[in-house]
Amino acid sequence: SVAVVVIAAIGWWFHTRGIAASRTQAGKGSAAEGRAVPVHLVKVEQKDLPIWLDGLGTVAAFQQVTVHTQVDGRLDKVLFKEGQAVKAGDVLAQIDPRPFEVQLHQAQGALARDRAQLDAAQKNYQRYKGLQAQQLVAAQQVESIGAQAGDFEGAIKIDQAQIEAAQLNLDYARINSPIDGITGVRQVDAGNLVHSTDANGIVVITAINPAAVFFTVPQDALPQIAAAQQKGDVPVEIYNRDASQLYGKGKLAVIDNQINQTTATLRLKALVPNDARTLWPNAFVKARILVETRQGALVVPTVAVQHGPQGDFVYVVGPDMTAQMKPVTVALTSGE
Question: What gap in Å lies between CA 201 and CA 214, rounded to an integer?
Fold first, then answer.
């Protein structure tokens, strides 16, 4: 397709208005008829033209986790501040660990007891096997003693499992951040009893770097976007609502798997680095997605193209500095 080829007079509207005014004032003298009207001339450029699609959208958290306790107990300490940046593994709160320490000690004591009993049963079993070889005891008695040793072996495995469970509960009593993010408003204060079934949890952590931006474009843009994605990363720029300030640059992450039938739009998701925290969850933004770059396109300002009964046209200034009307075919319009 052929783009606009033109040297355009942007101020032509003012020129035509001046002609109309001079005609209405024809009786006022030739000075008004010959008045000069300034115009702007722009050269045609041949360059690579990026084609952007615009869409409106909202910012969302890349990840969001409601932190719950996994064991019941008294909340001893809250170790974070509201709005604090935390890393995965940082300690957020501490539940009273003493009940779980008691369980651990009980399981460790049971393990020591059962190991001693197993050792005694194994030694006893070996003695009775020797007596059986001399035909001094019955085989049934030897088998019974061997079974006792097997019982203690099973008890030891149960004790080890109880130790692991107690250690796990002790770890759960120290509540760590599962992700990197920003803490929200604290949901419970120290001193309260907390349970794993509490609906609100302790705090909500939101990961905002990178930020996720969801925006929509017309469904007719799907072939262009899909083709661009097959070639590699698709750049996305995020602006404030009136497009006066650039918030960040990222790339397309997901094309939704269905069209919204009500609005005939396609939903897209972009991931945008957010080190400066200019993108905040639920904020409204404007997104631009680069779907194509036309190589060697002939381009002029959009305002240079005029529209008439015969179609689009421009005014071309020739070597003699006179303007002539030339019909043109607009392949596409991108921004200004």
Answer: 27
